[in-house]
Design brief:
The longest helix is centred in the C-terminal third of the chain and has 19 residues, at 319-337. The protein is globular, with a radius of gyration of 22 Å. The protein has a single domain, classed as Thiamin diphosphate (ThDP)-binding fold, Pyr/PP domains (Rossmann fold, 3-Layer(aba) Sandwich), CATH 3.40.50. It has 14 helices and 8 strands. By secondary structure, it is an alpha/beta fold. The chain has helices spanning 13-17, 61-76, 89-94, 114-127, 141-146, 149-158, 209-215, 229-239, 255-258, 265-275, 300-304, 319-337, 347-354, 363-374, and strands at residues 81-85, 106-108, 134-140, 163-168, 220-225, 246-251, 281-284, 287-291.
Length: 383
């Protein structure tokens, strides 16, 4: 039985120093903290990169994440920054022609080539001797994990000096909530309807984009959510201290696509962390360096129930089996990344996590019959 991985806790200096938190977040009271420990958003003179007037839905996690991420990147670059935006929700709600909610140099690319356009911008700026101007590319999970993956992999392989931020709402929300490579198992979308023998998205598909980025051994990879905005600020600031390719994957719940109340965006992002379904960590040069530990573990049901895209999971005859498979995915993440201190676990929970299969989604098992069919023995047949 494999032990739980022992991982270092991500330490954010500001969080360690500031002991007063607003309820439900790590944002600090502006007048109660020393200047050096205040968040960027607490500065009344901050640059609002994404300003008012955009047309995001109520409770949009992407709008919240983009504002914090780009404000932080722009400040780290001392205002010398250009953003390249893939087609998607963020582009559509922020720039309805002829208007824009961006107050920074901003360029709209095609759905799948934001990484290539950003790499070209960085190369052009360097050729002109203007490499003090930093380049940030951003897109949703469709423009990152699916359509844009080839360009993004090329950017990683060349180690182009670009920070790429993926705002992951786990489907193509802008075009009608179609399944993407980041859609979780069993989730209902327009193309994975809750009908048939196995309703919702299948278990054996999907891509873990942060781990794919890590496989390229680029300088910096991190995951974050809009539940911990101080963590998001910290990771963008840290990413901007590097040169070369960097990747940040941010979970941004979508009330419209997930079928959740608009006031639960931050709550759901926090539950994704607490269940282990979305591990939050940092990696440098292909190796994990720190993780965000789970302080209050929660069962996956607590995360799934508020979302109508998982409503069928609790109604079908196989609901117990489906929930067990989703819980196994969370437990595998906890074991793989070391998200919980072993001493803090009850014995039964620890046993369950340690027993989590290495392939909870059944991806390899699904391929096994075909492999067996093609297996030809080298032994000569007996007469």
């Amino acid at each position: 039985m494999t032990e739980i991985t022992q991982s270092a806790q991500t330490e954010i200096p500001a969080r360690e120093q500031v002991k007063f938190y607003q309820v439900g977040s790590f944002a600090v009271g502006n007048r109660l903290a020393d200047l050096q420990w205040r968040s960027l958003q607490s500065d009344p003179n901050r640059k609002n990169s994404l300003t008012s007037g955009h047309r995001a839905c109520q409770g949009c996690g992407e709008a919240l994440g983009a504002r914090y991420a780009i404000d932080t990147a722009s400040t780290a670059a001392k205002g010398k920054m250009v953003a390249i935006n893939a087609t998607g929700c963020l582009e559509v709600f922020s720039t309805p022609y002829p208007e824009t909610a961006w107050t920074i140099p901003w360029m709209h690319s095609l759905f799948g080539n934001a990484a290539a356009v950003a790499a070209g911008a960085a190369a052009g700026l360097k050729a002109m001797g203007k490499d003090d101007i930093r380049v940030v590319a951003q897109g949703g999970d469709g423009g990152t994990v699916d359509i844009g993956m080839a360009c993004l992999s090329g950017m990683f392989e060349r180690n182009d000096d670009v920070l790429f931020i993926c705002y992951d709402n786990e489907a193509y929300m802008n075009t009608g909530v179609q399944r993407s490579g980041a859609t979780p198992p069993a989730a209902r979308t327009a193309t994975t309807q809750p009908v048939g023998e196995h309703p919702g998205n299948v278990f054996t598909q999907g891509k873990d984009m942060p781990r794919i980025a890590m496989a390229h051994e680029i300088p910096y990879v991190a995951t974050a959510t809009v539940a911990d905005l101080r963590d998001l600020e910290y990771k963008v600031q840290k990413a901007m201290t590097y040169r070369g390719a960097r990747y940040l994957h941010v979970l941004v719940p979508c009330p419209l696509g997930w079928g959740s109340n608009s006031n639960l965006t931050v709550t759901l992002a926090r539950l994704a962390i607490q269940t282990g379904l979305f591990p939050v960590y940092e990696a440098e040069n292909g190796e994990i360096t720190s993780v965000t530990k789970i302080r209050r573990p929660a069962p996956v049901e607590a995360y799934l129930k508020p979302q109508r895209r998982f409503a069928h999971v609790f109604k079908g005859p196989d609901s117990h089996e489906v929930l067990a498979r989703i819980q196994a995915i969370a437990d595998r993440n906890i074991k793989r990344y070391g998200l919980i201190e072993m001493d803090s676990l009850d014995e039964d929970v620890r046993e369950r996590i340690l027993s989590a299969p290495d392939d909870p989604a059944g991806r390899f098992a699904a391929a096994l019959p075909g492999r067996q069919a093609m297996d030809v023995s080298n032994e000569p047949e007996n007469d």
